[in-house]
Amino acid sequence: MTERTLIQAVNSALQDALAGDERVLLLGEDIGVNGGVFRATEGLLEMFGEHRVVDTPLSEAGILGTAVGLAANGLIPIAEIQFMGFIYPGFEQLVAHVARLRTRSRGRYSAPMVVRVPYGGRIRAPELHSDSTETYFIHTPGLTVVTPSNPYDAKGLLLAAAASPDPVIFLEPMHIYRAFRQEVPDDPYTVPLGQAAVVKPGKDVTVISWGSMVRDVAKIAEAMEGSGGPSVELVDLRTLSPIDEDTVFASVRRTGRAVIVHEAVQSLGLGAELAARISEFCILDLEAPVTRVAAWDVPPPLFRLEDWHVPTEARIRAGIERVMTF
Amino acid sequence: MTERTLIQAVNSALQDALAGDERVLLLGEDIGVNGGVFRATEGLLEMFGEHRVVDTPLSEAGILGTAVGLAANGLIPIAEIQFMGFIYPGFEQLVAHVARLRTRSRGRYSAPMVVRVPYGGRIRAPELHSDSTETYFIHTPGLTVVTPSNPYDAKGLLLAAAASPDPVIFLEPMHIYRAFRQEVPDDPYTVPLGQAAVVKPGKDVTVISWGSMVRDVAKIAEAMEGSGGPSVELVDLRTLSPIDEDTVFASVRRTGRAVIVHEAVQSLGLGAELAARISEFCILDLEAPVTRVAAWDVPPPLFRLEDWHVPTEARIRAGIERVMTF
Amino acid sequence: MADTAMLRKPSDVTDDVLLNLYTEMVRLRVFDRRCVRLQRAGRIGTYPPLEGQEACQVASTLALRRQDFVVPTYRDYGAMMVHGVPMEHILMYWNGRAEGCEIPDDVNVFPIAVPIATQLPHAAGLAWAAKLRGIDQVALGFFGDGASSEGDFHEALNFAGVFQIPVIFFCENNQYAISVPFRRQTATQTIAEKAAAYGVRGVRVNGQDALEVYRAVRSAVEQAAAGGGPTLIEALTYRYGAHTTSDDPSKYRDPSEADAWRERDPIVQLRQSLVSWGLWDDEAETELLERLESEVTAAVARMEALGPPNPDHLFDCVYAELSPHLERQRRALRAELKDWEGTDQ
Amino acid sequence: MADTAMLRKPSDVTDDVLLNLYTEMVRLRVFDRRCVRLQRAGRIGTYPPLEGQEACQVASTLALRRQDFVVPTYRDYGAMMVHGVPMEHILMYWNGRAEGCEIPDDVNVFPIAVPIATQLPHAAGLAWAAKLRGIDQVALGFFGDGASSEGDFHEALNFAGVFQIPVIFFCENNQYAISVPFRRQTATQTIAEKAAAYGVRGVRVNGQDALEVYRAVRSAVEQAAAGGGPTLIEALTYRYGAHTTSDDPSKYRDPSEADAWRERDPIVQLRQSLVSWGLWDDEAETELLERLESEVTAAVARMEALGPPNPDHLFDCVYAELSPHLERQRRALRAELKDWEGTDQ
Ligand SMILES: Cc1ncc(C[n+]2csc(CCOP(=O)(O)OP(=O)(O)O)c2C)c(N)n1
Ligand SMILES: Cc1ncc(C[n+]2csc(CCOP(=O)(O)OP(=O)(O)O)c2C)c(N)n1
Ligand SMILES: [Mg+2]
Ligand SMILES: [Mg+2]
């Protein structure tokens, strides 16, 4: 056990993945000599050599496209895309090939790979470095989409992703890369894909969130409870596709109220799907319409306005109060 | 007035756009000499010359990327992407630039352009020629997303799109390119963007659909009504982003029930957003949970299975019956 | 190729290979013509004929070793069959049947790439994996002249150059991308010269000359396998027919152009040589054509003997395992079909 | 450039231009060094220094005409200022202020492109529009060595070649893409040679020599304006500092490398020439530095005098008009802010 930040947990998982399976290799821009722009791959080139930790040309379609071939021919690529805003040049490869290779070859080939993508705002980054467009991937059948909200899950989910027979988009919330430390086992372990976590039990209202927002919601929930407010059950979705309906529905059926909080813009953010499914399957238990607290439907702004773009504390509180007082 | 198919109405609109504004030019693969793989641009090269009807290299990022420059420097490009499955190589240009140019330059530049994209299934096309991934564009602030369900709207919406100060993704439902004819004025006219149409009034249940599915739903609704079933109000959304909430909400408030039918896969298909918004804003008028009838959450299959992938008549009927009997 | 040259029998290619080149080219042509007829009769869907490009597909593929990868476009089902994909799978594929996507486990052929140029990074990746794993294996990625305009072409060639990947990029330059002529695709005279921009070897061959193609690929395979890195081969060729059965080439080119190319038909040329070398005669030809016609007939019969499409195929290979959500959707579809089978619609 | 050559005063460039080249380069350097300090002090956000690349940005831009377009990357704010963007806008941009995105109506500068190589098709499109509209205008698109690996580089160059677009692609080859050295970016020796793959002229210049850069761009502008089509210019240069203020170059290169490049510093070199030609002296230098320091100080003051960020900026330029849905969201945010202003958080 070592106290690790989320980015250190990622680094530890990558090290274990490389050490544990010689088929694993890392691909990306600046991941070798430089150790990654966030230091996720620090030290790994020295440990595993340049055939397993590969600095590629600046070429996302090249990275994801060759990863398809690498994966289909017996390797397990873990690709780093530097920021979510830079995955778009490789979008065709993801949508047309990575996601569909198994179907398109009726199982003869598959594309087991992990695409690591730092995402989200609130790190005062330059333009286009703060997108939260997980919808593009969730809406693409064939992809698994995962995001951790803490160091322990980061390592466990990443190792599970590397072991998955299917391609996994692994979203890393930059805002909490170094926000706090947690005990993280030194040995490899997995946190299963497809399973949400109830990170805080409660009885009046279910809040569903993921990534960096989980921490915000947890604080707000505690503060509200501390001051006589409602008892919030907080569900960390962890896997965004497929959705863990069992956990989500069970919680909402218990509390009768649901609020979804995410950094993505509201229209067709994952909150829409969650709201639609909850309304369909839990309708008889709902005491109030499902409420979404999301970013406004405008592009992520330059950083001086970003705190007003994503859900603020006030908006999250208001969302919870809205379903409580409906 | 001439009886025209949808594709002929598109052709007529393009001709009017070129004739009416010398800033308009068409860009695309095979749109000149060949008149387009669907003949949407037939005859236009002869009429307007090769500087206004431009056969480009096979290069979608090139088309959409140069269109940004063309639009910012005084022209109005109308680009044809051959099939929706082939817009992905230009996705970065769309998401990072086309959609954001106005914001990113605080209004100094904008990217008024139309991107015409044949989409949807049920024409027995080869692989990857049947995608319905409008979600990717609807979820992208800065884009307007439009799709007609009949020849009259096709011409009017396309001319409105060409006159829009903002970039418009114009989705053309291939399934009904030649399915039927309609009186279409020879002169230019517009159908306003952002306005849905109640194509069939009814009182028991609102069905919201768009593109080629509108026709299917209309037939089913009439058949159901004819055999003593519920009275269906059919809303053709026409503009998928922004959503015409006034029309949608007014209809649902009247009928108390809503079903959304679309060809896109269910998870984060536009039905999710509609369901979420209707549940939020019309909750007190709803007699039943909003129901979605969509494609299964798997990639569009080779064509012998495509009719089982998109909503079938049985599934649409079942959806309507489900909200009626809730 | 001058007539006198045709008379000299090559010493670097065995008789078996010469005969193989010929019979496989004829096989593709017989298959292709049948498919065009099947499409017209509504017995298969849209189909992209390859007639004219047989030397490119056959000679390149025969120059590979069994372990090497063929990475095709939609037009390279000919190469796929040469490398071992059963003919009926190709038929099923163009008939919209999921079964057509099956590739036997011991056949190193990648699925058909429909989005242009996207297969080239795959070819690079497959070959790169072989290099990293220390396997003696190369990959050959086919592409068209139009594909050279896409970003994926560039990124694949660049990776191949930087990582010295044992991959061969084989361009069937048939001079049209649907209707767009090569001169509108690029301002260069050739595709081969583009290789230099990536530090990659570039070669241009006569795509109507099976032997020239064969030698170029064989040499590229040898170099790749020996650690000599990638090669880009451009084969100048022509499709006699339409881009696909939905296309009307008279819109964009003069039929005399195709006629001129038919004068240099790869099959006719090789047959003349084989006859002059005493390896072929009319009897062999008749026998071959009969055999191939019945091979195709049998494959068509197998395609048409397939039962109704199986809706489970929608779901069964999307993920390694179905999520509960997809399981629910599959159950719903099954239920719907049961109802539907119950009616007489 | 040999010392003797430096002594000969060029006859093809006016004294005004020579002095402009120099003063603008110094202006960028003064600005750049201040920005690095501002960032360290937390007064602006992440910032990508350009020190070392002044000749590339200044000389290329000064060789343009006022009507020509500058199409920059994140590192080309220097060129943007040279072409007329107010210094305080650049400061505001790197300070995360929406106001920093404003570009005066009469300044033909495109917004900074952050996604690599995406600006190159824009440059081609802007220049293509000029050609189609019969306007005498070219566009110059900047890019880095790393950008040459992206598909958008390829597609832009290809369009430019095919349509003979009056565009100039100007590569500041500073030999690193963040940490990745040029030799890992491509297997070719130069970027300039890649131009041939598109039928485009390719030129390589010493990016530390302002005059050489100036002449190359001037000639490319003349050719483009005369209908001679596109040019790719590669200027060999070096960034002395970090990729951005978040980067630590000691991770991937030896400091001695930067030292060696500083010996060929473009500003020092031009100053020596100017002095030897009698166009410059210590007094002029002192005066210039003072003037520039106060220009920068004033710009910083204007940036810091901006009031609190205006949340309406989130909404006001997304579409030409707000939809009712966005109007509702804007109202909600305004309401929230009102509450928030009411508290003393
Ligand atoms: C990314 C993408 N854009 C457009 C298309 C539509 N399309 C199919 S084939 C084709 C022309 C391809 O030309 P070429 O590469 O020369 O190959 P050929 O068909 O001549 O064999 C086009 C434009 C596509 N399949 N993929
Ligand atoms: C599409 C994309 N991928 C990755 C990045 C992250 N990134 C920012 S700058 C940079 C290196 C660019 O190198 P180069 O083109 O040589 O320009 P330089 O920074 O040296 O001026 C990278 C990888 C990006 N901005 N866009
Ligand atoms: Mg071709
Ligand atoms: Mg660089």
Overview of the molecule:
The complex is a heterotetramer, with 2 copies of chain A (326 residues) and 2 copies of chain C (345 residues). Chain A has helices at 6-20, 44-48, 60-72, 91-98, 101-104, 134-138, 151-163, 213-226, 245-255, 270-281, 306-309, 313-325; strands at 2-4, 24-28, 53-55, 76-80, 114-119, 144-146, 168-173, 182-184, 197-200, 205-209, 232-236, 239-241, 258-265, 291-295. In chain A, helix 1 packs parallel to helix 7 and helix 3 runs parallel beside helix 4. Chain A has 326 residues and is of the alpha/beta class. Chain A folds into 2 domains: 2-184, 3-Layer(aba) Sandwich (Rossmann fold), CATH 3.40.50.970; 197-324, Rossmann fold (3-Layer(aba) Sandwich). In chain A, strand 13 (258-265), helix 10 (270-281) and strand 14 form a beta-alpha-beta unit. Chain C has 2 domains: 4-309, Thiamin diphosphate (ThDP)-binding fold, Pyr/PP domains (Rossmann fold, 3-Layer(aba) Sandwich); 310-345. Chain C is globular and about 70 Å long. In chain C, 56% of the residues are buried. The model of chain C has no long low-confidence stretch (mean pLDDT 96). Chains in contact: A-B, A-C, A-D, B-C, B-D, C-D. The B-D interface holds B 25, 51, 56-57, 59, 61-62, 64-75, 89, 92-93, 96-97, 101-110, 141-142, 144, 164-166, 194, 242-243, 245-246 and D 69, 98-99, 101-103, 105, 110-111, 113-115, 118, 120-130, 132-133, 139, 151-152, 155-156, 158-159, 162, 313, 316-320, 323-326. One thiamine diphosphate sits between chains C (75, 114-116, 144-147, 172, 174, 176-178, 243) and B (29, 58, 60, 82, 86, 89).
List keywords for this structure.
heterotetramer, A: alpha/beta, Rossmann fold, 2 domains, seven-stranded mixed sheet, five-stranded mixed sheet, 36% helix, C: 345 residues, five-stranded parallel sheet, two-stranded antiparallel ribbon, 13 helices, 7 strands, globular, binds thiamine diphosphate, binds magnesium ion
Write the layout of secondary structure elements.
The complex is a heterotetramer, with 2 copies of chain A (326 residues) and 2 copies of chain C (345 residues).
Chain A lengths: L1 E3 L1 H15 L3 E5 L15 H5 L4 E3 L4 H13 L3 E5 L10 H8 L2 H4 L9 E6 L14 H5 L5 E3 L4 H13 L4 E6 L8 E3 L12 E4 L4 E5 L3 H14 L5 E5 L2 E3 L3 H11 L2 E8 L4 H12 L9 E5 L10 H4 L3 H13 L1
Parallel strand pairs in A: 2-3, 2-4, 4-5, 5-7, 6-7, 10-11, 10-13, 13-14
Antiparallel strand pairs in A: 1-8, 6-12, 9-11
Chain C lengths: L2 H5 L7 H26 L13 H9 L6 E3 L5 H7 L3 H8 L24 H15 L5 E6 L6 H13 L3 E7 L2 E2 L2 E2 H4 L15 E6 L3 H16 L5 E6 L18 H8 L3 H11 L5 H24 L18 H19 L3
Parallel strand pairs in C: 1-2, 2-3, 3-7, 6-7
Antiparallel strand pairs in C: 4-5
Helix pairs in contact in C: 2-3, 2-11, 2-12, 3-4, 3-9, 5-12, 6-7
The structure holds thiamine diphosphate (2 copies) and magnesium ion (2 copies).
